[in-house]
Amino acid sequence: MDRLGRLLLLSELRVRNAAYDVSLSRSLLSWKRRVSSPVYHPFRPSMCHSVPVSEIISVREEEEENVSKQIDDEGSWKKIREGERKDCRQTFTVSYVERCRQHRWRCAEVTFTCPDRVLCQSWVSSIREQLASITSRPKHLLIYINPYGGKRQGKRIYEQKVAPLFAHAGILTHVIITEHANHARDHLRTNAELKKFDGVVCVGGDGMFSEIIHGLIWRTQINSGIDVNCPDETLTPCSLRIGIIPAGSTDCICFATVGTNDPVTSALHIIVGDSQPMDVCSVHHNNSFLRYSVSLLGYGFYGDVLTDSERKRWMGPARYDFSGLKMFLTHNYYEGTVSYLPAKGIMGTPRDAARCRTGCVVCQHNGQKAEKYELDETSDCESDGEWRTIRGKFLAINAASMSCACPRSPKGLSPAAHLADGTTDLILVRKCSRFNFLRHLLRHTNKDDQFDLNFVEVHRVVRFRFTPRHCQSDSDLELDLLDNSKSQIFSQICRDHPACGCAPAYSSWNCDGDILTHMAIDVRVHCQLIKLFARGIEKPQVFEDLSNPCAL
Ligand SMILES: CCCCCCCCCCCCC/C=C/[C@@H](O)[C@H](COP(=O)(O)O)NC(=O)CCCCC
Ligand SMILES: Nc1ncnc2c1ncn2[C@@H]1O[C@H](COP(=O)(O)OP(=O)(O)O)[C@@H](O)[C@H]1O
Ligand SMILES: [Ca+2]
């Protein structure tokens, strides 16, 4: 088939000794069993298969074991010399992506037997030509492995599950096993010869991914002459894509962009050259740059869980359960002021039932809008001065730039958040009783709406600031006094539960799994600043795919 959908090749080949009509177009490889009788047979396995060319991993030619021998005139087997094999049967094997349950991908294989070598070679070269024309596939990757993340299995996971697939797909790799924290970040900032590579892969958790984006974003901004300390600068998007092989404790960035934490699935998304843009928040304090964040920025509960859990790293991923329970029982609250700039004129709200999925129209629409804003500086909504301010006592202040779905919370902290819409969902959990807070937390783990509680509010924003109470100006503190008398509804919640014994405290920020000790921060979302080797979570497949000629 050419561009118009015509076939490039059509032959009768054999698959496991049965005859199939096999066809190749620019977009699809299909094989359909030849049937002698047209009678429908309910128990016969599916007789028609098709694989998008974009999901073929590789093709290799093989000689069938018994075809390198032929029966001679006397009726005995003789070996065939090179050049005599033109009429032998030859096989070629195609490896391709097969979808399994819960968004997992596997590498499947099908072997086709051709009547002669010439036909076999023509099939192999046609498929290879189609694969070579896919320019989005990486050929050379820079790989960082954190040997200490998660259950300390990063090196083994890479060597046993991922490296063989990359080799199979003909991808060259340069592997660095990190020797200390920030090794990968600093190498990317200064030493890595990035021009040689088509992408960077990290084997580890969210903390390791954070190192990679810090190295790449920093280098990209320095090369473009951008002052990273200025929160108002428009940042330059990074050109290299990033792959994540999950080998950490939460692996929320992998889970929320792929739908599963499975190293083989992630490796296959890298091999087929997927691309998923992603928002990045910059975090500043007093006009000096602190960090970037792509998933959760959490003050209060999630900040304290992280700080406490770091001291229990020896427990592995279970440290989060232990510290989670401990901080829940501690039940501290945190006073301060949150100001935010609501996202205007965008599609979507944090309470939507729709989810961000592969090819998300909300991300496409809002991404184009954000691009226009960047070009037309005067229309920057920040100059509209529509900042809103909330003072109060909070158990948690969370900003989720993506759903933050992970195995602990399959729908995430903000289930309707988008990966690439240029916004973050600011979730404020006011001081309330332990019982109510537990109701909210449990809703992270089940199907109920965690925002449908009177002490929780959520806003979709493009920028926000937090100032803890002790950093507030005198005039703000006076306003606090006034507000306190007005906001009786919330203080009431705790008086109703005197046993809860809330204590005021100061927390730190959990920034994608890194602790930020500065409490007063200024956060701005940069729409689609980085790209991942992913495609977002796929929608469930339609049983009868009309693009599949077999279905017709
Ligand atoms: C008492 C019942 C509590 C049930 C609460 C379950 C809620 C879980 C929500 C998890 C959100 C995770 C957001 C992602 C955070 C990660 O970036 C961070 C670091 O990950 P990694 O580097 O892979 O270790 N993980 C956490 O902060 C763990 C939070 C766990 C809180 C219980
Ligand atoms: N070789 C190393 N030794 C110690 N720490 C490291 C090393 N390489 C990376 N790190 C740090 O380990 C931290 C946690 O890594 P991560 O892969 O996210 O695992 P986890 O999900 O278990 O937290 C990261 O913040 C990273 O900076
Ligand atoms: Ca977002």
UniProtKB/TrEMBL annotation:
Superkingdom of the source species: Eukaryota
Membrane-spanning ranges: none
UniProt GO cellular component terms: membrane
GO molecular function annotations of the record: ceramide kinase activity
Pfam families named in the record: CERK_C, DAGK_cat, PH_CERK
GO biological process per UniProt: ceramide metabolic process
Name used for this protein in its record: Ceramide kinase
